[in-house]
Write the structure tokens for this entry.
Amino acid sequence: MAPTKERAPRVSRNPDLIRGIGKFSKSQMYHKKGIWAIKAKNGGVFPRHDPKPKPETAAEKPPKFYPADDVKKPLRNKHKPKQTKLRASITPGTVLILLAGRFKGKRVVFLKQLPSGLLLVTGPFKINGVPLRRVNQAYVIGTSTKVDISGVNVDNLDDKYFSKEAPKKKSKGEGEFFESDKEEKKALPQQKKDDQKTVDAALIKAIESVPDLKTYLGARFSLKAGVKPHELVF
Amino acid sequence: MPFKRFVEIGRVALINYGPEYGRIVVIVDVIDQTRALVDAPDMERSPINFKRLSLTDIKIDIKRVPKKKDLIKAMEAADVKNKWEKSSWGRKLIVKKRRAALNDFDRFKIMLAKIKRAGVVRQELAKLRKTAA
């Protein structure tokens, strides 16, 4: 309403003893808020401003349609989901084992948790074919092997980077429906390939400094005969 | 056929059941037909059923229910820890523990090492076969 832009957040001068009961009475609050001083400044009366003239709104037409039943509108839900809590065993640089999807069994390096809660992960691509990808924490085993990730910069990657492109609306032509469904296979944009290369360059250097780690990441995990997963230490 | 390991004061045993599973203890007193009083340097002296004990070959020289200090001195004098860790039973248990604590990466490295070793053995075997044939 008033044109002041930055106001300090309103703090109550009346602390709660218990919810619904303040510490100070009505007359005490009158004194604390200084209503008496404001009144004195204004000659014994609390200052009152006439309402500002409202800009002319077009005359409202009566609605064309009245619904037959009185349907209640549902209440607004302003609930925002929290980011999924990351397991303590998963820290940036951890080697993860993917358990589902196209890359199941692959051992992969964890980079960071995205704002949606999904984990950003990379093969590295040269080592095991897993690109920069999002993965749900539930479908992952965190091992205790860590890779040094200090040389890697993943600040420019977030959920928007991975969103699907909105499909272009094609004009409706009946003959075209059956032919041109999968004519164009979308080629991966060059920018994504470059991002993959920059992220992997620093990672691969760190991986090659540890003996056998490269072959480890290139191999898939599997259960063998006699192996009990509940007894395995990852 | 005759028994060699007896329940006696000073007999070192391994607890094979219960919350103290895997602990090396010394029998310090016999309570009754079923239970013994058992003690170790880093644990409170407590009764335990004989069924939960596996007797070892090691025996130390102590009096009935010694003070903790005396027990520790006697155990060091008999060098129980080293004797146990050098015995084949003790070594097997240590290997078992180490295998159970292996990382996924460690298991992978071991697999590579086993394959390498098998390859070397097979080469030598092939050489020997050639000279024998």
